[in-house]
C-alpha cells in the first residue's frame, strides 16, 4: 500500500515461467496524475540467478527512477497554469532550454529564471542557472555585448555561491559557467569536482566535466565523461550538447571524420546550435572536404553576421590558460584557412 501523500509509486513482482525461469517486472507510476505509467522494465533469469538479478535490477531502478521522476517533474511544471507557478516550477520550466545549449534557448530560459528570482530571492538555483545562461550567450557568440555579459555571469555566480553554503550539485554545476566566462579553468575543475562528490549520479556534472577535459586537451577522459553523462541523462533529456562534446573530443584527438559525424548528429538533435559550425568547418577542412567546409562556414556567417576570428576567439573558453590554448588554436587555424576575416 502506498502512503496517502506519496507522489510516485514503485512496484515490482516476480512471475514464475516454465523451465525454472523467473521474470521480475518493475514499474514506476505518477500517483498524483491518475497513476500514469512513467517507466517499466522486465528482467528474466533462473531461480539460482536471483541474487545477481536483484543487484542488476536495483542498480537500474535507481537510475531509471531518477530519470523518470525528473522528466515527470518538468512535464508537470510545463502544464501548470501561469498563475500557480512557484519558483521551483519556473526553474523546472527553464531547465530544458538551459540544457539545449544554444543562444536562443538560453535567452528563453532567462525569462522564467528572472521570474523565479523575483518570487524567491533566497533560492540559489535560478541565480546560478541565470549565470550559466549568461555564460552561454558569451560562449556561443549570442550577445552584442560580451564584456557586459561576462560581468553579469560572474556576478550571478558569486551571488549564487553566497546563497548556497551547503553546495547543491545543480548550483555548483551552473556556477561553473560563470567561472568559464571568467576563464577560470581551475575554479571550474573545483566546482565540478565538488558537485560530482555530492551527487555522482548527476548527468549534467559529467557533461560539463567532459567539455572541460576536451578543452584541456584530454580527449579520452572527455569521451568517458560524455558516455557516463549519456547513461545518466535518460531518454527524454536533451543530448545535443553531449553529442557535440563527443565531436569536440574527437576533434582534439585528431579524428576529424569522426568529429564531423558527431557534430552533425548534434545539429540534427538541435538545429539551433549553429555555433557548432565553428568546429565542424575546420573538421571538414582537415580531412579534405573543402566544399563541405565552405558550406559549414557559410552557415555560421549567415547565423552570425559580421562574425570574425576575434569574436570567435573572445568566445572560446580557456584562452589564456596554457592547457587550453593548444586545443583552441587548432580550431582558429582552420577558420583562418577557410577565410574567416580577422
From TrEMBL:
Family annotation (InterPro entries): TPR-like_helical_dom_sf, TPR_rpt
Record keywords, A-Z: TPR repeat
First and last residues of every TPR repeat: 240-273
Transmembrane segments: none
Protein name: Tetratricopeptide repeat protein
Organism: Roseomonas fluvialis
Amino acid at each position: 500500500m502506498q502512503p496517502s501523500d506519496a507522489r510516485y509509486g514503485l512496484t515490482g513482482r516476480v512471475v514464475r515461467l516454465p523451465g525454472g525461469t523467473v521474470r521480475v517486472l518493475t514499474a514506476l507510476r505518477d500517483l498524483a496524475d491518475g497513476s500514469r505509467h512513467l517507466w517499466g522494465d522486465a528482467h528474466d533469469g533462473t531461480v539460482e540467478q536471483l541474487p545477481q538479478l536483484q543487484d542488476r535490477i536495483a542498480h537500474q531502478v535507481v537510475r531509471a527512477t531518477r530519470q523518470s521522476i525528473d522528466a515527470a517533474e518538468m512535464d508537470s511544471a510545463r502544464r501548470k497554469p501561469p498563475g500557480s507557478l512557484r519558483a521551483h516550477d519556473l526553474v523546472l520550466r527553464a531547465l530544458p532550454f538551459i540544457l539545449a545549449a544554444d543562444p536562443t534557448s538560453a535567452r528563453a530560459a532567462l525569462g522564467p529564471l528572472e521570474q523565479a528570482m523575483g518570487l524567491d530571492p533566497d533560492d540559489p538555483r535560478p541565480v546560478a542557472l541565470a549565470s550559466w545562461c549568461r555564460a552561454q550567450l558569451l560562449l556561443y557568440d549570442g550577445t552584442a555585448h560580451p564584456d557586459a555579459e561576462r560581468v553579469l555571469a560572474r556576478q550571478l555566480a558569486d551571488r549564487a555561491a553566497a546563497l548556497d553554503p551547503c553546495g547543491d550539485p545543480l548550483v555548483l554545476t551552473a556556477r561553473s559557467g560563470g567561472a568559464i566566462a571568467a576563464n577560470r579553468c581551475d575554479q571550474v575543475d573545483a566546482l565540478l569536482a565538488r558537485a560530482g562528490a555530492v551527487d555522482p549520479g548527476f548527468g549534467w556534472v559529467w557533461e560539463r566535466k567532459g567539455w572541460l577535459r576536451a578543452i584541456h586537451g584530454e580527449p579520452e577522459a572527455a569521451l568517458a565523461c560524455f558516455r557516463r553523462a549519456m547513461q545518466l541523462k535518460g531518454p527524454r533529456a536533451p543530448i545535443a550538447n553531449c553529442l557535440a562534446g563527443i565531436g569536440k573530443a574527437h576533434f582534439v584527438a585528431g579524428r576529424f571524420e569522426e568529429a564531423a559525424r558527431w557534430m552533425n548528429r548534434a545539429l540534427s538533435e538541435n538545429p539551433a546550435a549553429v555555433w557548432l559550425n565553428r568546429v565542424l568547418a575546420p573538421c571538414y577542412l582537415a580531412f579534405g572536404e573543402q566544399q563541405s567546409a565552405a558550406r559549414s562556414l557559410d552557415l555560421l556567417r549567415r547565423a552570425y553576421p559580421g562574425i570574425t576570428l576575434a569574436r570567435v576567439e573572445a568566445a572560446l573558453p580557456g584562452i589564456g590558460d596554457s592547457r587550453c590554448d593548444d586545443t583552441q588554436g587548432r580550431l582558429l587555424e582552420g577558420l583562418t584557412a577557410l577565410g574567416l576575416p580577422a
